[in-house]
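PROTOCOL LOG
Step 1. Enter all chains and additional molecules of the complex.
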Amino acid sequence: MVHAYAADLYRFAYWKCRDRALAEDLVQETYARAWAAWRDLRDEKAAKQWLFTILHREHARLYERKQMQAEAQVSEQEMEHLMRVAEAQTQRNVELREAMWALPAPFREPLVLQVLGGFACEEIAQMLGLSEAAVMQRVSRARRALRKQLEPERDSMERRS
Amino acid sequence: MNCLEFRRLKLTDPNRLTPAALEHAAACPSCADFNGAQDAFERELLEAVNVAADPALAARVLLRRRLKHAGYRRVFARAAVVLLICAALISAGVRLLTPEPAMFSALAAHVAHEPNAFKADEHRTHSDLAAALSASGARIVRPIKGDISYIHPCPVPGGMGKHIVIRIGAGTITLLTMPNKNVYFRKVKTHEGYAVAVLPCKRGSVALVAKSEAELTKLEAQLRDHVQWQT
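Step 2. Run joint prediction.
Step 3. Record the structure below.
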């Protein structure tokens, strides 16, 4: 369970808080809570969704305030890391990430869950405590917003066609 | 399905298109183009979302769990050791602080082998009795209504003590003072037809011996009204 999902949980946590140390703390806390409540997991096939839900709740419980501070002030260490990562990646990738961060969290989170975790809208709705319709609307709008920002010409062309 | 529905579906969940949507994409060149472009965008999106995770993260998660468990095990092990030590100390303490069984047989044998003490009729005074008990720190608080028929020094457990016989009411009780033998709890045992009670005194202890446990209890209660063993 740890080897299978730790990395994806970390990525989801990172996209929530944009802080690597906090993201790892969240993963550690998620597993600690999961082990403590292991008996509550009725279907082991649902472990992935269960773990992502725990992480989402843990984040809400522990780090929402910190996240607001983190977003307002990205640390020097984080900036250095971003620079190193940016050097190793394509310009397109960097732009896409920045566009992702520019999305409001209520739109970014369901999109990350879908792209990263491969969850269906119904599952994401259960995890985030939203209606399925709301999730469908958010992921759709998030994709449109990203494409509009990154591919404005293509987006307008497709809208016209 | 029309183009608008297809595009809405594709943007909502690109990897879960319905058979009707796939059929539409196959038939509509514009939507097929949109489908391909969106798939390419999804690949880029996945690459962007897939931030690098430390390969050692899983190992650290597991390590923390092992350390936590090891911590619990250490706590339980320490608690078990403390409990064992406490149990051993209590057991040793109880053994040290209560008179050992051999003492009762020695005291009963002492009384049985000195029948002359019962037959003696020395009519000793309360002052003699007070002096005999003083070595043990016991004190007469009220004169005993009985006949103090025998007081002599004798070898007792722990050294020398006094062998005293008192006739009270219908019974006879033998007192063996043991100023050098400490006990901390009263204990009664019957041996060789004698009931022996050993009780703590201010200094050392005293043994009360009677013919039966019932008689011993009765006479001991009477004596308690007159003698303070621990002042």
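Step 4. Note key features.
The two ends of chain A are 46 Å apart (CA to CA).
The first helix of chain A runs from residue 2 to 17.
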